[in-house]
Sequence to fold (83 residues):
Amino acid sequence: MKVSDDVWTDFRTANRNSSVAIALGDLVTREVDRYRARRVQEGSADEQELMEALERANELHAELAELVKRIERRLEVRAARSR
Fold:
């Protein structure tokens, strides 16, 4: 792998709480997820890939719903403080 020193420094800073191996594993996983999503969008995914995509979509939906709830609670608290 070849990157400039400043890119490597920022990468290490951004991932200072995990090992390089874990961070690189996360990057590989994200790239594979994108590849699989493209296959689904193109209509070239098989049944197993479609089932896995549906499962992942449901997981992401749940994570986003929880994030939205937390953001809404924070905004409600801020609005109550400013009254």
Q: What stands out?
A: The chain is about 80% helix and 0% strand.
